[in-house]
Amino acid sequence: MRYAIGIDIGGTTVEAGIVNEKGDLIQKESVQSDPSNKEKMFLQVIQCVNQLLNHSSIPEDEIYGIGAGIPGKIDRRNGVAVFQNNLPWSNFPIVHRLREALGIDNIVIDNDVYMAAFAEWKEAKMLEDELFVYITISTGISCSIIQGGNFIRGAGFAGELGLIPVFTHTADHSMERLEHAASGPAMQAKARSIYVNEALVTKDIFIHFTRGESNASRLVDEMIHALTQGVYMINSILDPHKIVFGGSVATYNPYILPLLKDKLKNYLIEEQLHILQNMEISNLNNGQGIIGAGLRAFR
Q1: Residues 157, 96: one domain?
Q2: Which domain holds residue 39?
């Protein structure tokens, strides 16, 4: 059995895990990110990997390679983290630096959503000609598209679902980007303008929602209204065989899926209704970023 290290790098945390070629996550470690400057951020990545290796029963010489998922724009061919809006790396030679620090030559990088999507695609066991879409709803909103094991990348920025304009529930039905209407931070900002005496975070909104609180119910309904429009656009353009939702907002609040389906069916024509039976929440326990990154090291 071969093993690889998968790294999921974010603005809040860095997670690293050992993954076997079947996609099993053997062990993982997590450290806080330090986005105050590029070197401190890089040191946190190295600390996380070293912590993993120090605690692992898998010998380092049995590690086949490393896959790293990084937010934002990535130059895969040259191993460069080009731009991230939540990390201090600009044209940062991440692959070269990882090779120097860890002494492992086989290193693959990609956008973090693409890495997570690869794990979900493997889990879904799609047929060769079937088209798969992974949508993440978290700090941001994005998606990745896979057919026959290959990513549909366009000119390099395909899948930025959060940039799609959607109609809001405001009186004038104005338009705003989906990410500004339905992501975790967007919901948090809207909640704090309503619950002025509470320092709410996103999970608190859903706690209030499950208790039937009217303001939280309205916020969640607005989020579902916006998200439905984005999913409908993706579905109409691609007609995928399956859509899987991940990211913290989706995975920790799986009851949003039936709400989304209920609204979506009002948009769909008969030929599109099949997607309602082929939409699901990820069951990889938020480990898809690590798993996908590790699996990509074997390709």
Answers
A1: no
A2: 3-116+287-296
Predicted local confidence at residue 171, as pLDDT: 66
Q: Work out how many domains the chain is built from and give that number.
A: 2
112 and 173 both lie in a single domain:
no
d(CA 17, CA 7): 7
Q: What is the CATH number of the domain that holds 168?
A: 3.30.420.40
Tell whether 155 and 235 lie within a shared domain.
Answer: yes
User: Are 10 and 78 in a shared domain?
Assistant: yes
Give the pLDDT confidence of 142-181 residue by residue, as tens digits: 999 999 999 999 988 899 999 999 998 776 778 999 999 9
Q: Which positions of the chain have pLDDT values less than 50?
A: none
